């Protein structure tokens, strides 16, 4: 009824719709990423502060040149997670790991007798010894066989992360090279050593790791009593000691050709041995007065000087 104050009023329900804004554009993701990056950088700095100087140098080198310096770090078969320097304390571990890697490959297991790993005065020597029909190289050729390629690839993976220098030597037996011409065992031994070097570098060994490539022909036989023994044909890889010094009680490798550091002068009256200047630092000379010098006996080299003068014709003196 219009005049009735008790009339029932309609119930009005007000619903407020909260409208969401547009897309946030991922701004929070950018801030979160910046935070995570800063946190990661903090942990890297804390880790570097507690690592060896060698690792610090390798990390810095990686950012300067990733290709050449990245190989200085990583996990070698030695399992340290750091670049490992081979010295007299851990060389046995490297030797064991190389032997294990050889045994893991079926093709190389049967050739384990043709791989000799020993410690020498220069460092750890790994020798690839040939058989009569050729094992690692094709007969009479510097070209590597499939076995040689497989073994050197495996060795490259083990050696490329080492800071130690490498020496590569080529050897032959005393059988003259059958190819004739000017190509001899000297060229063959050098070419085989260089073939090994090239494959090692293709496998990741840096050019600065290769200290020397030597070709000895038949001058350093493995079996001196049998110069024609096939085992005299070999290629040697030497991992030099970190300090470059020989083992205590071992002599330095002899000069090619053997003998002392002398030069022979041929003449009708026989050779005269002329001492050559030894390599390395020389001891300081002590100055003496003329009075003291007169009391001293003639110098050791005076005798051979006088003998040489006597050999020269009188008109040319």
Structural features, described:
The protein has helices spanning 27-48, 53-64, 66-69, 91-104, 106-109, 146-159, 185-202, 290-295, 302-311, and strands at residues 115-119, 123-129, 166-171, 210-215, 234-240, 262-265, 272-275. A hairpin with a 6-residue loop joins strand 6 and strand 7. 16% of the residues are buried. The protein starts with 26 loop residues before the first helix and ends in a 6-residue tail after the last helix. Helix 6 (146-159) packs across helix 7. It has 9 helices and 7 strands; from the N terminus they run H-H-H-H-H-E-E-H-E-H-E-E-E-E-H-H. The strands form 2 sheets. Strands 1-2-5-3-4 form a 5-stranded mixed beta sheet. A two-stranded antiparallel ribbon has the order 6-7. With 317 residues, the chain is α+β, with helices and mostly antiparallel strands. The chain folds into 3 domains: 29-72; 91-240, OmpA-like domain (60s Ribosomal Protein L30, Chain: A); 260-277 and 302-317, no CATH class.
Q: Would you kindly provide a brief summary of this structure?
A:
With 317 residues, this protein is an alpha+beta fold.
Output the keywords.
single chain; 317 residues; alpha+beta; 3 domains; five-stranded mixed β-sheet; two-stranded antiparallel sheet; 7 strands
Measured as a percent range, the helix fraction is 25-40%
What's the rounded overall pLDDT mean? 73
Q: What does the largest sheet look like?
A: 5 strands, mixed
What is the CATH H-level superfamily of the largest domain? OmpA-like domain
Class per helix and strand makeup: alpha+beta
Number of helices: 9
Q: Percent of residues in beta strands?
A: 5-15%
Spans with pLDDT under 50 lasting ≥5 residues?
Answer: 69-82, 247-298
- Report the count of strand segments: 7
Strand numbers in spatial order across the main sheet: 1-2-5-3-4
Distance from N terminus to C terminus (CA atoms, Å) equals 158 Å
What is the H-and-E element order? HHHHHEEHEHEEEEHH
CATH topology of the largest domain: 60s Ribosomal Protein L30, Chain: A
Rg of Cα set: 36 Å
Summed up, the domain count is 3
Shape, principal axes of CA atoms: elongated
